[in-house]
Amino acid sequence: MIIDIHSHILPAYDDGAMDEEMTRKMLHQAYEGGTREIVSTSHILSNADYDRQPEIFEKFELVKAIARKEKLDMKFHLASEIYMHPDTIVDQKVSTFDDNKKYMLVEFSLRTIPEFVPEMLFNWVMVGYQPILAHPERNLKIFNTPAYAYKFAQMGVLLQMNGGSLLGIFGEHAKSLAHDLMDHDLIHFIASDGHNVYSRPIFLGDVYRYVSDRWGQERAVELMETNPRKAIRAEKIEIREPIPFAENTKKPNKIRNFLQKLGISGK
C-alpha cells in the first residue's frame, strides 16, 4: 500500500488540480497506481498564505467528498509544502502533517540554497520539528555539489524525492542525481508531487516497481509506506546510514562556516 506524502490535489487552490474534475481524475489515477493514503500539501509560499487556511480546510473536505462519491477507499491527511524564507513560521494547523507538530514538508529555490536555509533547518530540528526537504534531486546547487544532500541529512533533515525524477520526468539531470541519492541512502521518502494527470502525474505504481527492481522491495516499502506512515503518526523514523559523496567543489563560505560550527566538515 503506497502512502503519498506530497501532492497538490485541492481543486483550484495552487498550481495543482485546476478544478474538481481534475481532482477526481487524480484520485482515480493515484488509486490505480496503488496509493491508498494521500497527504495534501498545497503550497504555502509566504506567511500570508496561512490566512487562506479556511479555504484549505474547505477544499480538503471537498476532496474527501469526491473520493466517497467515487467509492475510492482512501485516507487523506492535511499538511502543506512550505517555501522557506528567513521569517517563515511553522506553527499553523496546516504546517505539519495532520497538525502533529512534528513532521513538515519544506522547499526552497530549485536553483540554489539560500544562505539562511541550513541554520533555519537545524534550528527547527533542535526545537523538535522534523523538516522533510522536498525534491532535493531537482535542486541545481545539489546537482553540482551532491555533498550538500549528505550535509542536510547529517543535520537531521529528511529528504523526499519525487518518484517521477527516477523515471526521467524532470529531465536527465534530476534523474541522474535521483539515482545517486538513492545509491547513497540519502532518500527517506518517495512521493508523487502530483499536480495533474498529465505532465505531473500522481501515479506511483511504476515508481514502486522501478525501486523494487533496482533497490529491492524492502526499500520500496520503506520509502513509500513505512516511513510515510511514521511521519503522519509523528513516530521516529530510523534512517539508513548515509554514504558520503566525494567533495570536489567549495561551498559558499557562510554555509561552510555554519556546518563547521556544527562539527560537520564543510570543505
Structure description:
With 267 residues, the chain is an alpha/beta fold. It has a single domain, classed as TIM Barrel, CATH 3.20.20.140. The protein contains ten helices and seven strands. A seven-stranded parallel beta sheet has the order 1-2-3-4-5-6-7. α8 packs across α9. The radius of gyration is 18 Å and the shape is globular. The relative contact order is 0.15.
Short description:
With 267 residues, the chain is of the alpha/beta class.
Strand content: 5-15%
Tally of individual helices: 10
**Biggest sheet: strand arrangement:** 1-2-3-4-5-6-7
At CATH level 3, the topology is TIM Barrel
Helix-residue proportion: 25-40%
Provide keyphrases for this structure.
267 residues, alpha/beta, TIM Barrel, 39% helix, 15% strand, globular
Provide the fold topology.
Layout: E1 2-4, H1 20-32, E2 35-44, H2 53-69, E3 75-83, E4 103-107, H3 117-126, E5 130-134, H4 140-144, H5 147-154, E6 158-162, H6 163-166, H7 172-183, E7 189-191, H8 205-215, H9 217-232, H10 253-261
Parallel strand pairs: 1-2, 2-3, 3-4, 4-5, 5-6, 6-7
